[in-house]
Amino acid sequence: MTGKNYIGNKLSAKGSKTFKTFNPQTNSENDTVFTEATTDEIHEAVSLASEAFKTYRTVSGENKAHFLNAIADNIMSLGDTLIQTYCSESGLPEGRAKGERGRTVGQLHMFANLVKDGSWVEASIDTAIPEREPAPKPDLRKMHIPLGPVVVFGASNFPLAYSTAGGDTAAALAAGCPVIVKSHPMHAGTGMLIAKAVIDAAEQTEMPNGVFSNLNSSGIEVGEQLAKHPEVKAIGFTGSIRGGRALYDLASRREEPIPVFAEMGSINPVVILPEALQSRNESLAKTYANSITLGTGQFCTNPGLILGIKDENLTKFIINLSEEIIKIDPSCMLHPKIAEAYQKGRIKASEQKDLHIVAEYQHEVKQNYARQTLTNVSGATFLKNPTLHQEVFGPYSIIVECDDAEQLHQIISKLEGQLTGTLIAEDGEAKNYSQIVSALQNRVGRLIYNGVPTGVEVCPSMTHGGPYPASTDSRFSAVGKHSIKRWVRPFSYQDWPNELLPDELKNENPLAILRLVNGKQTSERI
Ligand code: NAP
Question: Which residue is closest in CA terms to ligand 1's atom 25?
Fold first, then answer.
């Protein structure tokens, strides 16, 4: 582990600013010294990416698939070194590290299969009608093409799956875009190991130098310079609302504004209807105690807001959930700074007028471990106080007791955009609350029925995103194969000679992909 930046295929450490990662379990610094990228190195990485784009954009789906599969293989070959580094930089357990590695590798294979098949470019062909009156119809052929160099910012809480070679990077490389990763300072070592796996794969499969770079940083300057760089054409971000919004504003103030696909924090409202509370009170309390504390509550899909209509069963649920949640052993947070932010967020929330702390882990906890906390307010108080709507990143949730269904509807309608919404109901109960369901749909990217929001399946039908501030563009998902669409633009050829068209659009359809030809889905030749 050299602690250097990868500027394309070359290791580089020209700067004087250094930092170390931190092991929150042992409450001590890790050994490796990382060197932050300098302005020169940032320019070099972006110029290389820009140069690499000229050839990488034309690399065949089959060769991109080799590259993506080689990255996955190289990640697996890192073996225990990767797992140990991950754990030492996150405080997360080995099982989670292995699970996240499986997901990361699975995503790379998924995109490899997608580009190998080739139909993802959504080729659409409308052949000419020269004899059309009053004017002839031209031949038009459309497909997705890559945007150009993409900068990826990963989040602290997913050192693998939403970081260096996580979903954003895999999707961008699959689309044909070179990637420059702004490595997360909390897991720079994990990032560096993964970066080497990507660089080695690029060399093994003869991808152009600059198709991937990994830049270290311990503050916001490197990220800001990357976001402002004229040759960067899009940004993928996973993290806090504050960080995502800052980058979004920066990118839109550029002379050439660029898209920022920021996936940000969320409080993921859970609505528990009265009949469900009556019949499943205890089991729901157990389920939700586990979901709120899963991964020390450090998930963007953590259920941070539970809504119910005031009655004796809701009161019973608050007691049951309180009892269950404090039975769970506290666990370690990702970093002292995250533990500190959680502590501040909890205190800020608990100082709010008319808010009650109904459960809080009371025994001693180790350094950087989080005390799970449950609070409770009335619907009227929640409606009046926007501070209560903010994410407290950690094992925290607020239960809101609404006066009636109308107030519940009003609260949901006033919520900010969310990644998920959950409805807990008995059979046939939901149809009596159709207004609430549709208000919830209007605020979220994914609706869950009788489950928990934690756990994001990677598959084509997953939407991981939502109205702002859950994400900066609710039209796209950050998870699943359709997330590739963030890194492409539609492009049309008009009356272009067949031999000059890309294979995807040629009459003979040499890639045998599925295309929309004169309004009909077909893989036939024209
Ligand atoms: P973060 O503090 O926003 O940091 C994310 C990355 O962005 C870091 O590399 C950070 O750099 C950089 N950054 C932050 N502010 C910046 C700015 N103003 N300019 C340039 N770069 C900036 O978030 P985090 O603590 O790592 O992650 C936790 C958050 O992520 C939670 O809110 C969680 O809900 C959210 N999350 C969302 C999803 C999703 O898919 N929606 C998934 C996972 C996590 P420095 O650290 O160097 O400052």
Answer: 156
